[in-house]
Amino acid sequence: MPLVVDLQRFQGEGTGGLGTSVDAHDAFLRSLSLRDLKKVSSLTPLAPIVQRHLHDRVESMWKAFHLPSSPSLGMLKDTGSIVSGSAALDLILPGLRTPRDLNLYCPEGAASAVLSYLFSHKFILQGPPLVWNSMKEGRSNNCFNINNGVKSLHRLKHLEESALITVVESVSLSPILPILFFHTTFTMNYCDDKEITCLYPNLTACSVGLNNRSEDYDRLHKTEATQKWEQLGIELVWNCDSKHRHYSENTTALPFAATGKCQRQIRTLDDAITLRMGFTEEKRISSDLKITWSLGYTDWMTNKVEYVDTHVSITTPTTGTKYSTLRHHRRALDWKTHRENDIESDGETSVARTSFP
Ligand SMILES: [Zn+2]
Predict the structure, then answer these.
(1) Distance, CA 146 to ligand 1 centroid (Å)?
(2) Which of 43, 205, 215, 294 would you call most buried, defined as having the most Cβ atoms within 10 angstroms of its Cβ?
(3) Can you give the residue range of the structural domain that contains 300?
(4) What is the pTM of this model?
(5) What average pLDDT score do residues 18-39 get?
(6) How far is the CA of 186 from the centre of ligand 1 (A)?
(7) Which DSSP state fits 44?
């Protein structure tokens, strides 16, 4: 039986009310993670109160960067863009870290529309954009060497205020692709024009992230990217092998797959693990783009090491493209070759220095 909350008592209206002010309710809701808000909103009839609160969270985010909320959400809708990075994390886990800049991710080809909106709101470019043209196409529609899914990067600052924005153009029609190549699941969150989405809610709400650990991890990601979160007390798990067993005598099923706590699970955007909450009355229009992904991980075996790189598959009704860092996203090495390889590839390269984030 659904739990029913007396709205009058919650709001403190009339006789018998709790007598608490609207400010007190806001303070209470402001402290909750997106996962907890989802639970609170399931208590009839608190859903509209939670939705209004979420809308306020989004409005405050734009305000912090000196942008008007409704037109900026309109820009996200018109360009198919999303907000990610620490600003999106602040919508999901408020108060952990004040966002230093706003990261906007747009589909391939939409960067100029996003930039012209920002130019019309007193933002200017800090320098020339960084553009990559390193993507290669292999057989079976496999795109590799994709620079973490980023095609171009534009840094902007406000003319009068201290506000920074980074616009990241995806190499694909989905702005979500670069997010799936982030170094940890902890930051795999985003906000579009209608909803806030957390891709690993069960871990994120507990301040835990799984590393997106591909063979090229040290080459692709800055070391500081990991340290920043660890200093805030976030547990970043290198390999989910340290948390649970993957092999059992009786079954080949992954034991922790259903909880979204396993690097080896194949995920889709609309699976039961993804947590979405709407902050407007408008309903989400289902997209033609279907996205499937799995994180990178390393499987340490007695006679060899197997590397499985991050790979993402994006399909439309007529096309299907796979994205990965390397041409072959699965590679097994015997221990001797692995050690030699490790010594050879030790150290940072230019990709890590320019990668984003
Ligand atoms: Zn696992």
Answers:
(1) 26
(2) 215
(3) 66-354
(4) 0.87
(5) 79
(6) 16
(7) B
